Amino acid sequence: MYVLIQVLRGLAALIVVLHHALTPADGIPVDQTYFHFGAAGVDIFFVISGFIIYTSTISRSQSPGDFFLRRAARIFPPYWAATLLLIATHLVLGMQRDMVLSTSHVIQSFLLIAHDSPTEPGRPYPLLIPGWTLQYEIFFYALFALALFFRQAAALGFITATLVGLVLLGAVVGAPVDQVAFNVYTNPLLLEFLAGIFIGVLANRQPRIFGAAFALLIPAGFLLLAMSDHTDLPRMVEWGIPAIIIVFGAVAGENLKNRWRIPQFLVTLGNASYSIYLTHIITLGLVRGVFRKVFVDGVWWIPLFVVACVVASCLAGVLFYYLVEKPLVKGFTRIVSRPARSRT
């Protein structure tokens, strides 16, 4: 296991939590001005995803169907559970007041089909808003599964040509606001998955390139992200390039992991990063509700609110990971693996 990559996943989840904790809400006078780049945690996730998918398949033989079903078993069950939890908090506690439970929106949300959000037109937001990133993940997994029909070199060429071609198509045709699915599947964000794949290719074929000194790219990448809050560049440049630099540095830093003692709680946060990401919107809503009732005057409590958001999101995410994500993924993976075993 790439330990630093796992730690980086946890860190990426935390900066997304911070980004949303600092999003202004009724009765919570927070300021996101200097932490807008926290949304770049998603870009880091995408680069990591490309890297992990490539490195985890390069040395093992999988059919396209087996690969996709295994990835779907890791993504869908925890996402469905978190979405049901969100709906429950809406129905029981009155959270997410603007939630629309129309049949089409619910079905497309659960299947992670990119569609126009009824609450935020022009956005591909499902019921559980962070799920918009999973639409990209599932699309990437499907494309990677198709690439497995080819030999390794041809597969790399296929996925590169397809992702670059889609992005070029989007650039040439334009981005019509009313064509949400088209905008998702031609978005330059797709190139971040491709960057992760090529980091994996280099790590596999030219490991000497990843000198330990390149671990310094991690703080350098985060510095670039912090500086990006004062720029007005395309997301792929503003956040995508720093995310690629950070992941490259984390892979290089693996050469130093035997010299460092990485705290176990950081690894645990990395393991639970998906659960933290899925549940933090619900957790933040609950924390905001408490603070609206308890702290009504002054801004002195804002730092306490932010700390409470981060701590509560981590604790809730870790609990969700052990009690929900792990059992569900294990059970669904066993189910989808049975056809493969029977064929063998």
How widely separated are the two ends?
Answer: 27 Å
**Class inferred from helices and paired strands:** mainly alpha
What order do the helices and strands follow? HHHHHHHHHHHHH
Number of helices: 13
Helix content: 55-70%
How many DSSP-defined strands? 0
Silhouette: globular
Q: Indicate the low-confidence ranges by residue numbers.
A: none
Radius of gyration: 20 Å
Explain what this protein looks like in three dimensions.
With 344 residues, the chain is mainly alpha-helical. The chain has 13 helices and no strands. The protein has helices at 3-21, 41-57, 64-93, 103-110, 132-147, 152-173, 180-185, 190-205, 217-227, 235-253, 264-271, 273-294, 302-343. Helix 5 crosses helix 6 (152-173). The mean pLDDT is 89.
Secondary structure layout:
Layout: H1 3-21, H2 41-57, H3 64-93, H4 103-110, H5 132-147, H6 152-173, H7 180-185, H8 190-205, H9 217-227, H10 235-253, H11 264-271, H12 273-294, H13 302-343
Helix pairs in contact: 1-2, 1-11, 1-12, 1-13, 2-5, 2-8, 2-10, 3-5, 3-12, 3-13, 5-6, 8-10, 9-10, 12-13
